[in-house]
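Batch manifest, entry 17 of 40.
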Amino acid sequence: QVHLVESGGGLVQTGGSLRLSCAASGRSFSGFAGGWFRQAPGKEREFVAGISWNGDSTYYAVSGGRFTISRDNTKNMMYLQMNSLKPEDTAVYYCAAGSDYRLPHEYRSWGQGTQVTVSS
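Output type: structure tokens
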């Protein structure tokens, strides 16, 4: 198992940007695909983006080009750069580690989440 801790959430106005970070510990994060999920109040958890173990491949389930997922295995870190934020992006964002960066059901380890609130 890998232990994950998110940071970087907060309150931002519509059109603003945030960079979420995910710090991994325990087993080497470079052995896992990484992903970001989000859950808004009253809604199911939603897959946002995934990145392969070496960072060479990415997959975006949502964002329309506004989000960028990246990772730095030398630091055991993963990031989600979010630009042009909209109120509908408001949610708790979770980072996760798994075996296939494209498949949400393949993620097994989860962080505790960080709140992102976008005001209109």
